[in-house]
Amino acid sequence: MTPRNAATAEPTNSATVFAALGDQTRLQLVSRLSQDGPLSITKLTGGFPVTRQAITKHLRVLERAGVVRGAPEGREIVWHVERRQLAQAKRDLDAIARQWEGTLQRLKKFVEG
């Protein structure tokens, strides 16, 4: 068993991001916002086979996870991707990948040697 150190990933905040992105509709919403920039709910609902109310619920889940943010603009709310939160989740995944690479390398040496 190896001791925990600063290089060990502890994606506690990112776990909510991963959970929120685990739904196909929410993942598509984030993808669309990332590609097309800030969009209103009216523009976001175009092309989705679910109701505007369902899209709003998905956006609220993403907002609680810190993935998107809604800001009022006139009579509508315009949704933006929170890139810092996604970047942190990516860093956590990269750290986990590095840990697995190290573990697999140690296993390979053990098996081969």
Question: What can you tell me about this protein's structure?
Answer:
By secondary structure, the protein is of the alpha+beta class. The protein has a single domain, classed as Orthogonal Bundle (Arc Repressor Mutant, subunit A), CATH 1.10.10. It is built from 5 helices and 3 strands; from the N terminus they run H-H-E-H-H-E-E-H. The protein has helices at residues 12-21, 24-36, 41-45, 52-64, 83-112, and strands spanning 39-40, 68-73, 76-81. The chain has a 3-stranded antiparallel sheet. Helix 1 crosses helix 5 (83-112). The longest helix is centred in the C-terminal third of the chain and has 30 residues, at 83-112. The radius of gyration is 19 Å and the shape is elongated. 16% of the residues are buried. Residues 1-11 have low confidence and may be disordered.
List the helices and strands and how they pair.
Elements: H1 12-21, H2 24-36, E1 39-40, H3 41-45, H4 52-64, E2 68-73, E3 76-81, H5 83-112
Antiparallel strand pairs: 1-3, 2-3
Helix pairs in contact: 1-5
Features:
3-stranded antiparallel β-sheet, single chain, alpha+beta, 12% strand, disordered N terminus, Arc Repressor Mutant, subunit A, 113 residues
CATH superfamily: Winged helix-like DNA-binding domain superfamily/Winged helix DNA-binding domain
What is the structural class?
Answer: alpha+beta
CATH topology: Arc Repressor Mutant, subunit A
Low-pLDDT residue intervals, each spanning 5 or more residues: 1-11
Spatial gap, N to C terminus: 20 Å
Q: What proportion of the residues is helical, as a percent range?
A: 55-70%
Largest sheet: 3 strands, antiparallel
The order of strands across the largest sheet is 1-3-2
What would the average pLDDT be, to the nearest integer? Answer: 84
Q: What would you report as the Rg, rounded to the nearest angstrom?
A: 19 Å
CATH class: Mainly Alpha
Number of domains: 1
Q: Total number of β-strand segments?
A: 3
CATH architecture group name: Orthogonal Bundle
* Beta fraction: 5-15%
What would you call the shape?
elongated
Number of helices: 5
Secondary-structure element string? HHEHHEEH
